[in-house]
Design goal:
The protein is an alpha/beta fold. It contains 24 helices and 27 strands. Helix 17 links the parallel strand 15 and strand 16. The longest helix is centred in the first third of the chain and has 19 residues. The radius of gyration is 25 Å and the shape is globular. It binds ligand MGD (2 copies), iron/sulfur cluster (SF4) and molybdenum atom.
């Protein structure tokens, strides 16, 4: 039986494991990790190992379908692709003629691989309203880095001697890093973990700072105080390359370590120890999360405070520190330059009407890639201001991603036309006018870049399940029906890949000749301390401890620490004494995904609320008791999982479940005023036993 080469694209774009697929009569029979692939070196996690159950899941969407009658009436009728795409095109053109192209939203959920082409479709159609899941993920840290340094770099793991892991749990979330992290540990590299839970990473750390969620800014400022007090900062760098150091010193002087201890719950001796370990071990690298520090109302500024650490200690853009390499394609640094930007943006933003959210989150909108802000969508749908919204074309839309998911759904249902393209007939699909079946990575052609300077262009290794199709082909075909075929290489996907890869002289034909992938020839050489040549790409040309952009926009220029609105320190005698933290990742699920896959589902059958035994005994709650998890917005029924891994006073609930949905408990406008990120991780709640 032949072994065909492909990769798993279930989880985050920094993993994506190479796969050897055994195929019989066009059907997948077996998968195993590809030994020669630099990302996974033969390994697969439980999700990838369950690929057969995923590809052939019972609820795969099999045909384009249209819902006749009312939404939610389940009156579905199978239609042909031609019919589906004609209906979509004619409705969109009607809506464009009546309300303008900006009234149509083009949205990508968690899947990322087709995004540049979806954005091209939106702009080609005339709508600035291309929006994505990144409005709650990774973009806030990205913008925080841009405002502070102009760019930011990932931790240079192979060369570091100290890893300060601030709020990430890579053993679960980026599991292809596991082996190399354990190797570092065995080599004696110091690990510091900043995490309110004893995570699988924190267990391995030399030092674990178990802070109260959402107080990261206070902790970072506490560490900075020690670095300054004990002269552990890089004085040359600070003098030459920073803006606002004196303001920082003034602030720090007013905030002793006792203050940081009180805010964070971390003993001041531990804060001092962490600052010394990070400040004195050279080189040291900072690893952060795409979301956990920024899922708070004060998250953007907290993240900025954390990002000051590499600069102040001379660890920015050096070997073994936070090394800046250019992003070449879809969030990765493969070293092979592409025309991604050119392909995404066929119109300049000046030629398009304002994006959704531009009024409310101007900094995010200006300094992130030109997208609309997803969190602002339901509010503009409701208000119709500054202009009405009428249609939503989703690719991988899960309406439960939003805080106040019921509010988002209700606003969505007030639109005139709803389409979603997904692999599965999800809960969200039930509310659409039309659904389109997408193909998995096994059934499509996909171009992928890896940070390890590796490229792959796959061809389908199995027949698509029933009538499912690649998202890319669907987008190209939608474009054809809208009369935009010229913008879409007249339907020729390989021609698009040729144009995309032209700056690094690869063609689709050449890439297809090495189905197992290839190391990038002559990858871009990044060099170190690039600011010494050209300064930092910030308004002042320096690392901005005080941000010029924030100051001009009326925000605190310095990342000073402020308690979030629902602070657990506030004095009101609240009925909600516990902190609710949501969404710590589980290894067997990806948000709303993999719950339909038996091997994954079996590993965690119940909706578990992690709580400390002391909080449980105060409430007469025993292991596995059913409890109500309640916030001022509502309550859901969950099962108590008593565990010492979480702090007393803080409970943790997974997101992504259809039932019970924790996002029903969160106000839709509980948003960070700078980034628009929801406060998913520092809310107030109560837990009581179900009678
Ligand atoms: N309470 C709480 N809420 C959160 C978070 C939290 O921590 N707490 N985290 C937030 C974050 S960081 C994120 S990233 C979001 C997750 O964002 P979501 O978009 O909700 O993520 P998923 O559920 O993984 O994926 C959405 C849909 O994409 C479909 N899909 C997968 N692959 C493909 C494909 O190739 N093509 C197509 N067309 N569809 C596909 C899936 O089947 C699924 O239905 O959730 C956010 N919401
Ligand atoms: N298996 C799996 N992998 C995934 C995903 C998934 O759903 N499943 N999702 C992908 C996505 S979209 C994302 S954004 C990433 C997230 O990737 P990670 O950030 O690595 O994972 P999380 O579990 O969200 O958060 C990591 C840690 O942050 C801690 N944390 C929570 N609140 C705070 C806080 O206020 N401060 C600090 N310092 N730490 C805090 C949690 O306790 C948790 O241990 O994972 C990606 N990978
Ligand atoms: S889900 Fe697992 S197997 Fe698939 S890419 Fe992610 S880590 Fe690899
Ligand atoms: Mo995310």
């Amino acid at each position: 039986m032949p072994i065909l080469k492909t990769f798993c694209s279930i989880c985050n774009p920094h993993s994506h494991c190479g796969i050897n697929a055994r195929v019989e009569n066009g059907r997948l029979i077996e998968v195993e990790g590809m030994l020669e692939h630099p990302a996974n070196e033969g390994t697969l996690c439980v999700k990838g190992a369950a690929s057969l159950q995923y590809v052939y899941a019972k609820n795969r969407l099999k045909y384009p379908m249209i819902q006749r009658g009312e939404r939610g009436s389940k009156n579905w009728e199978r239609i042909s692709w031609e019919e589906a795409l004609s209906v979509i095109a004619s409705r969109l053109i009607e809506i464009r003629d009546q309300y303008g192209p900006e009234s149509v939203i083009f949205f990508a959920g968690y899947p990322k691989w087709f995004r540049p082409f979806l954005q091209r479709l939106a702009h080609g159609f005339g709508s600035p309203n291309y929006a994505t899941e990144s409005s709650v993920c990774s973009s806030s840290p990205t913008v925080a880095g841009k405002l502070t340094y102009g760019y930011f770099g990932r931790p240079d793991l192979p060369k570091t001697r100290c890893l300060l892991n601030w709020s990430s749990n890579p053993f679960y979330t980026n599991s292809t890093l596991t082996r190399s992290l354990l190797d570092l540990r065995e080599k004696g590299v110091k690990f510091i973990s900043v995490d309110p839970r004893l995570s699988s990473f924190a267990e391995k750390a030399d030092l674990h700072l178990q802070l109260r969620p959402g107080t990261d800014g206070a902790l970072a400022l506490g560490m900075i105080r020690v670095l300054i007090e004990e002269k552990l900062y890089d004085r040359d760098f600070v003098e030459k390359w920073t803006l606002g150091f004196d303001e920082l010193v003034d602030y720090i002087e007013e905030h002793p370590l006792e203050w940081a201890e009180k805010m964070t719950g971390v003993q001041k001796e531990k804060i001092r120890e962490a600052a010394r370990l990070y400040g004195m071990t050279k080189p040291a690298a900072l690893m952060t999360s795409a979301s956990s520090t920024t899922h708070h109302l004060n998250g953007f500024q907290n993240h900025r405070a954390i990002l000051l650490l590499p600069g102040l200690t001379g660890n920015f853009d050096i070997p073994g520190g936070n090394w800046v390499e250019p992003i070449t394609y879809l969030y990765t640094t493969s070293g092979a330059p592409t025309n991604e930007e050119k392909i995404r943006l066929v119109k300049t933003l000046k030629e398009l009407p304002p994006r959704i959210g531009e009024d409310r989150f101007p900094i995010w909108c200006r300094y992130y890639t030109p997208e609309a802000h997803s969190m602002a969508i339901p509010f503009q749908i409701k208000s119709g201001k500054p202009y009405p919204l009428k249609a939503f074309i989703g690719f991988g839309l899960n309406y439960r991603m939003w805080p106040g998911s019921d509010f988002f759904k209700e606003s969505l249902l007030s639109l005139d036309f709803l389409v979603n393209t997904d692999l599965f007939f999800t809960d969200t699909c039930q509310w659409m006018d039309l659904v389109l079946p997408a193909a998995t990575s096994f059934e499509r052609t996909e171009l992928k870049h890896w940070n390890s300077k590796y490229l792959m262009l796959t061809s389908p290794v199995i027949n698509p399940v029933e009538k499912s199709r690649s998202d890319l082909e669907i987008i190209f075909d939608m474009a054809r029906h809208l009369g935009l075929e010229n913008l879409f290489w007249n339907g020729n996907v390989d021609a698009a890949i040729d144009e995309l890869m032209a700056p690094s002289n690869y063609t689709a034909e050449e890439l297809r000749k090495c189905p197992e992938g290839t190391y990038v020839r002559n990858p871009l050489k990044s060099g170190y301390k690039k600011y010494e040549k050209s300064g930092f790409p910030t308004p002042s040309g320096k690392m901005e401890i005080t941000s010029t952009i924030l100051r001009e926009a009326g925000f605190d220029a310095l990342p000073i620490y402020r308690e979030p609105r629902h602070s657990s320190l506030s004095k009101d005698p609240s009925n909600y004494p516990l902190i609710l933290n949501t969404g710590s990742r589980l290894p067997m699920f990806i948000h709303s995904e993999m719950h339909n896959v038996p091997w994954c589902e079996e590993l965690r059958k119940d909706p578990l609320l992690d709580m400390n035994p002391s909080d449980a005994s105060e409430r007469d709650i025993g292991p596995d008791d059913w409890v109500w998890l309640e916030t001022p917005r509502g309550k859901i029924r969950v099962k108590a999982n008593l565990t010492e891994t979480v702090l007393p006073g803080v409970v943790h609930m997974a997101h992504g479940l259809q039932e019970p949905d924790v996002n029903l408990l969160i106000e839709p406008d509980y948003l960070d005023p700078i980034s628009g990120f929801p406060g998913f991780k520092s809310l107030r709640c109560q837990v009581t036993k179900v009678d």
